[in-house]
Amino acid sequence: MKLKRCVNMLYPILFAPIYKEMVWGGTRMMQFNKKSNENKKDKTNIRELPYEHTGESWDISCRPNEMGIVENGSFKGTTFESLIALDRKAYLGTRLHERDDFPLLVKIIDANDNLSIQVHPGGENGKSEMWYVMDALKDQSLVIGLNEGTTPEMLQNSPLSCLHRLPIKKGDIINIPAGLVHALTKGIIVAEIQQNSDTTYRLYDYERTGLDGKPRELHIQEGLAVSDFQNKHPKEVVIGLSFVNGAENTARLTYAIANSYFAVIKYEINGLYAEDSNTEAFSIFTCVEGSCEISSATDKFETVTLPCSRSVFIPAGLGSYTLNGNCVLLKSFVPDVQKDFIEPLLSRGFPITDIKFQTQFDL
């Protein structure tokens, strides 16, 4: 297909999910998809999972070996990379267009079994991430950080005794900076927003074999070298700061996390809510409950339907758009932390002390 460089053809972009087979995966992602579409005549958003052990759905991915393919509108069938190349400013934003890479990766993860105890390195090529709990068993907990006093020797020799367990429930938000040892546990489904990196160091994996029947590789020395033994990072659920917004008060926005790599704001939508794209930076909406219809003022295409467990890319130059539905969305983007996160909260009357203690931000 011959692509045209045409800014007025910007519209909300859906990508075909890239499914990953994992030894700990399952089939529960399809349940969310079916539930959000059960009352709709159009069932085209319902799809079967390709694997019995489907562990991840990469919804927003621009990587050489995991390249998103546009699923809707005039650019259907186009690769994410080719789409951005049409006009980097219009798609990525005036602050991000000179980057060589696409900065974010968005996934849905089904932990049908315990995941490995793991940690990620830091820096521009590292991996900071966050989780939003879409579903969890009763009295569930996950692994976030290490117990006080843990040493590298203790973690290497007796890893399970060193782990801090955090009780969680549906709707919780957890920030996972690089260096924080962590693991999902059996029965949890999360939306994950992260740096566009897949570097993971496994510290322990329950002596489990992979899908090929061979023991899965561990990276103990690499993991120990980057793990946080000083407890620098919070090991708690992010409370966030919320306010009602919109002409008809149809949205509750909760500012949760912001750092140099990504920001996350939770949108609880009840009706029609309108806002403008940020010309400096693209954004992504991930539906974690209910479903949503998204339309732009200049959109010549059909309204985009966003079911639960799917994500949509909002080009920086899109302009005005509306969100319509009864749903919970996660808005993720690469922020100017002061301008895009702290100042909006200050303007709503939140004192800086509340911002420091109820959100997790890093300038």
Could you characterize what this model shows?
The protein is mainly beta. It has 2 domains: 9-226, Sandwich (Jelly Rolls), CATH 2.60.120; 241-361, Jelly Rolls (Sandwich), CATH 2.60.120.10. 14% of the residues lie in helices and 37% in strands. The chain contains 7 helices and 22 strands. Strands 1, 15, 16, 17, 18, 19, 20, 21 and 22 form a 9-stranded mixed sheet that branches. A 6-stranded antiparallel sheet has the order 2-3-6-13-8-11, with no helix packed on it. The chain has a 3-stranded antiparallel sheet with strand order 10-9-12, with no helix packed on it. Strand 4 and strand 5 (66-67) form a beta hairpin. The protein is globular, with a radius of gyration of 20 Å.
Number of helices: 7
What's the overall average pLDDT, rounded?
93
CATH level 1 class label of the largest domain: Mainly Beta
Q: CATH H level of the largest domain: which superfamily?
A: Jelly Rolls
Strand content: 35-45%
Gross morphology is globular
Write the H/E string, N to C: EEHEEEHHEEEEHEEEEEHEEEEEEEHHE
Instruction: Output the structural class.
Output: mainly beta
How would a textbook summarize the main sheet?
Answer: 9 strands, mixed
Alpha carbon gyration radius? 20 Å
CATH fold descriptor of the largest domain: Jelly Rolls
Provide tags for this entry:
6-stranded antiparallel beta sheet, 363 residues, mainly beta, Jelly Rolls, 14% helix, 7 helices, 22 strands, single chain, 2 domains, globular
Question: What's the gist of this structure?
Answer:
With 363 residues, this protein is mostly beta strands.
